Structures are given as C-alpha cells and as structure tokens.
Amino acid sequence: MQRLGEEGLIRVFGVAGYKNAGKTTLIVDLVRELTRRGWRVGTIKHAHHSFDIDHPGKDSYLHRTAGAAEVIVASASRWAHIRELADQPPASLDELLGHMGPLDLVLVEGWKHGTHPRIEVRRQESPAPRLTDADPAVLAVVSDVPLPEERCPVLARDALPVIADFILEAVGLPATPL
To answer: Are the C-beta atoms of residues 63 and 77 closer than 8 Å to each other?
Structure first.
C-alpha cells in the first residue's frame, strides 16, 4: 500500500499480532535486514498506553509539563516532535504517515485493523485469536511452528530473508534497490 508522506508516496506494510507474539523483535530484525540491503526504512509503533520520550528533569519534559502543546527537541544528529493530544482524538495511521520523510518503506507495528497490508505474528507460547479469520489485509502469518490449518501463507519466523522478500514483493519493491 502506498500513502502520502511529507516527501510524496511511501510504501506501508504492517506487522500485527497480540501481546508477546514477537512483533517488536521481528520489526527490529526486518529493519536490520532491509537497511542492510540498502533500503531506507522507517517505523511507526502503536502503543496502547501513555508513554514518554522525554523524562523528568529534562528540558523538553519541563516545557511539556509547563503546558506547551507541542515541543520539538533538535540537535545536529536528530530531532523529535512531541504533541500533547489532550482532548483531541488519537492520530490516525494516515495522519502519522503524513509526517514521515523520504523513505522507501514504513513498517507499522500494531494496528491490527485497517486497510494497509500486514503480516500476523504468532508464537506457540502466546496463543491468541487469529487475525486472518476476518481480515483480508493480513497477507501471511509469521510463526515459530507450522500452521497447516491456516488459509494464508505461513512464513517461518527463523526465515528472515524470506519474510523480508515477501514484504518487499507485497509493496512492489525488488529485493534490493537498483
């Protein structure tokens, strides 16, 4: 799927699953694999709880807790934008993608539902409801055990290059940049 970001169209692919399925570990492994191949990859992580990227005592934290609705922290090597939502609704995935810069691919962690294509991660040790039963946007399952009853393709969790190739093909990118 392609969405509009700050610099034009970007490709989006999701990694979804329930708690302790291994989503974050897989995303980290995929980012390493895809960037090793030469792709410029970004990520968006959905959190179901409040979180802070600044900490008590830091200037940005003091700015925010004093009442600033938005804070940008910038240095020569990175910048971060913090927006307090207060009573506003949470940002949609499309809105967040609109803030992404020039990237080849954005991997989205979480967002079990939506129109973006995704894989479902399952672990034998963490049984949970299947996302593939009711969601056509789930294109495959990544699992640590065989799933012969699954209707979607099942990719072995330890076959990272195969998973990366599946994602790249799904979004219309070759295995490596030209």
So the answer is: no
